[in-house]
Design brief:
heterodimer; A: alpha+beta; Translation Initiation Factor IF3; 4 strands; 28% helix; B: alpha/beta; FAD/NAD(P)-binding domain; 2 domains; 4-stranded parallel β-sheet; globular
């Protein structure tokens, strides 16, 4: 059964939401999902760009109040 | 009954908390109504940022170490007896020697550790300066290096987020002084789509790289190293050849955190403003041990420790909360062997680094000595 963990990276200037996502993906199994909350509008483009490059799976991006929720499934 | 404060971990965060609490709770410690105990892994306290200078011959090994018992206030019994099990429900910590310590308040300060062995070939093929043995080997490798392809490879997560840039600029200056820069090519790899996680720092560093002839490979997350073929390959599919590979290894937290089921990867889920472990009202977390999305750095541990000292002493003396942690981080950034800058930020204020200067570099060199006052809680 796959799991989803949440990473609240709002207000995270360093190391930042994408670095937090990469670190979190190292701790989960293939098929598990990581949901990143980011208040950096750049995350809505740079996270999908990296996910595509590294061939994980983008499950969804959802704008919320002053932040984005981005869900990624570990594919390998 | 005396209130027992137990600090697990003898690095910078735990040591500042211990020394600060001693000052705030002097009367209670004297009367016996409060006790503070620390468990650590070593007789010595190491100034970790000093390791950056060791490969370049700019700091002596002896300058990095002090006796931990001399850094700690005399009111704190210190046991070199690392924790093997932390039981939050029973409020006890078991140690390597088999002792059991009970507590009323717990401070988790176990820190992080490098894990080069988690990437195939990295430990065999790469140099690093994040521990003394690695810094010694890197010093020897730099002494023997007569030019060639240098790859500086950054992995996630890592502590001291500015160290990758610092070692790159310092290495360039070192190779220039050695007279082999014209026979060398430096390539810097970084996991995300710019050369540093802090956007303003990346905007400053990228043109500096260009000016210095340093190449960069962004979106490079290390998959493996082939030490025989001398190649390094990324998850994104890029392979680079090297003659000298310098890595910032990936880190995890300590095994005791994982084994005690307090947090995956050794990182403890922590409330970002109170620095309390999520779900606990008597367990504080400081420094690299937290899972907070902020820099794992000595200054983070320092500012967090100051908050914990205020809150823990307020809770004990007045049964009230003092203040919240605002996410403050301050980092010096060495921009070569003779210049530096600094950057600070918190949860709400973005970083805005100033232009590098020799003055800031000198202040960093001074801080290399002033550190011991920080650890004692005096600065």
């Amino acid at each position: 059964m796959s799991e989803r963990i949440k990473v609240d990276a709002r207000g995270a200037f360093c190391p930042g939401p994408l670095m937090e996502l990469i670190a979190a993906l190292k701790l989960v199994e293939v098929g598990d999902e990581v949901e990143v909350w980011s208040s950096d509008k750049g995350s809505a483009t740079d996270i999908p760009e990296w996910v595509k490059k590294v061939r994980h799976e983008l499950v969804g991006i959802e704008p919320r109040d002053a932040y984005w929720s981005i869900v990624v499934r570990k594919a390998k | 009954m005396a209130k027992k404060i137990l600090i697990v971990g003898g690095g910078l965060g735990g040591t500042i908390v211990a020394n600060g609490l001693c000052r705030q709770l002097r009367e209670e410690l004297s009367s016996g109504s409060v006790s503070i105990t620390m468990l650590g892994a070593s007789q010595t306290h190491m100034y970790q940022p000093g390791l950056l200078y060791v490969p370049f011959g700019r700091m002596r090994e002896s300058e990095l170490f002090r006796d931990q018992r001399k850094v700690l206030d005399r009111c704190v019994p210190y046991f070199v007896d690392p924790a093997t099990r932390i039981d939050i429900d029973k409020k006890t910590v078991t140690t390597t020697s088999g002792k059991s310590f009970s507590y009323d308040f717990l401070v988790l300060a176990t820190g992080s550790r490098i894990r080069p062995e988690t990437i195939p070939g990295l430990a065999e093929g790469a140099h690093w300066f994040y521990d003394l043995e690695g810094a010694r080997k890197m010093r020897d490798a730099l002494r023997a290096f007569e030019g060639g392809r240098v790859v500086i490879n950054i992995n996630v997560p890592h502590k001291c987020p500015v160290a990758p840039l610092e070692v790159t600029f310092m290495l360039r200056d070192f190779l220039t002084a050695k007279g082999v820069l014209d026979k060398s090519e430096i390539t810097y790899t970084y996991p995300i789509g710019r050369v540093h996680s802090l956007e303003p720092v990346a905007h400053w560093a990228a043109p500096e790289f260009e000016r210095c002839g340093i190449k960069s490979e962004i979106f490079f997350n290390t998959k493996s190293v082939d030490p025989k073929a001398k190649t390094i390959t990324s998850e994104e599919g890029t392979t680079l050849g090297y003659d000298l590979l310098v890595t910032i290894p990936p880190h995890t937290g300590q095994a005791v955190i994982d084994q005690s089921e307090l947090g995956k990867g050794g990182w403890v889920p922590t409330e970002r403003n109170t620095l309390l472990r999520e779900g606990s009202s008597n367990v504080f977390v400081v420094g690299d041990t937290t899972n907070l999305p902020i820099s794992k750095a000595g200054s983070t541990a320092h500012f967090e420790a100051d908050t914990i000292i205020d809150n823990l002493s307020s809770l004990i003396k007045e049964d009230r909360w003092a203040r919240d942690y605002d996410g403050k981080v301050f980092c010096f950034v060495e921009t070569g062997l003779n210049s530096g800058t600094y950057v600070w930020f918190n949860y709400l204020t973005p970083p805005n680094p100033g232009p590098p200067s020799q003055l800031v570099h000198w202040f960093k060199l001074a801080y290399n000595r002033l550190y011991w006052l920080s650890a004692r809680g005096l600065l």
